Amino acid sequence: MKYWFLLLLMLSFYTCTNKTISDTTISKTIAIDTIVSDTSFDRFQTNKAVFVGFSKHEVDSLFKLDDSSWVDMRQLIPDLEIDLRYATTNNFMELQIYNCPKCYLRMRVAKAVMQIQNKLKEQNLGLKVFDCYRPQSAQYKLWKKKSDPRFVTPPSKGSMHSRGGAMDLTIVDLNTGKELEMGTGYDYFGREAYWGYNNLSAEILENRQLLLNTMEAFGFKTVTTEWWHFSYRRAWFKLSDMKWECN
Ligand SMILES: [Zn+2]
How far apart are CA 86 and CA 130, in angstroms? Predict the structure, then answer.
């Protein structure tokens, strides 16, 4: 009786081991943007996810980075559209607060954005970002220009952008490069930009819903007054004043 039990135990151990090996199989090197969209990065960290699209070396170097590491999104997602309005004066403040347009996010957040980009690509769509990480000192510049908490988060409270966990963005059609119609432009401060505002065409409401559903599926939440703003809610990071290089 005792031996039967041991044999059963050995058999179940063999089955589990075998499964683990096949689950962690990693295919040969393919470009970063071909990573499968339904891969769970959280699961990968416990060595259980199937990874397609990276060489073992690439995966190791990327995922050894701490969750709070800064990531240049242009390097991580080469086809991410970046139109950083605060690196120009083309924003509602008419104020340039960045020396150059770079989109930095924390590693954990960046991984979620990769998944979103791949999910959208199934419909030949992609993300276009208007703002990402915003150093605390840049937040002070905004606050100095407009000290009104309805429009600018007080630096003393700390914007989610200054934690490297928020983005302002929209969806673009990858065939035409055009933004999907969302009812207002970025940084339009009025009721038409509210999520609760429904006096919009069916197409616009559908586009907004697609943006909301996609972002929420990967851990982001929006705010009631800005359809373009999303903060990552599955991790929390410290306020930062890290400043990026411009060359
Ligand atoms: Zn924002």
Answer: 8
Q: What is the pLDDT, as a whole number, of residue 210? A: 98
pLDDT of residue 39: 36
161 Cα: distance to centroid of ligand 1 (angstroms)? 6
Q: How far is the C-alpha of 230 from the C-alpha of 223, rounded, in Å?
A: 7
The secondary structure of 79-93 as a DSSP string is T-EE--GGGSS-STT
Give the model's pLDDT for residue 76. 83
Q: Measured between alpha carbons, how far is 10 from 1 in angstroms, rounded to an integer? A: 15
Question: Residue 34 corresponds to which amino acid?
Answer: T
221 forms beta bridges with 231
CATH number of 68-247: 3.30.1380.10
CA of 121 from ligand 1 middle (Å) equals: 23
Whether 123 and 231 have beta carbons less than 8 Å apart is answered as: no
Through-space distance between the first and last CA atoms of the chain, rounded to whole angstroms:
72
pLDDT at 21 over 70: no
- Residue from 179, 181, 226, 245 carrying the catalytic annotation: 226
Could you tell me the distance, in angstroms and rounded to a whole number, from the CA of residue 32 to the centre of ligand 1?
Answer: 27
> pTM of the predicted model, to two decimals?
0.76
Predicted pLDDT at 92: 87
Q: Model confidence over 36-86: pLDDT tens digits?
A: 323 333 333 333 333 334 455 665 676 677 899 898 898 888 889 999 999
235 vs 109: CA distance, rounded Å: 8
Percentage of residues in the chain having pLDDT higher than 90: 62
Question: Among this protein's residues, is 192 annotated catalytic?
Answer: no
Pairing status of strand 125-131 against strand 220-223: unpaired
Can you read off the two tokens belonging to residue 231?
């903060």
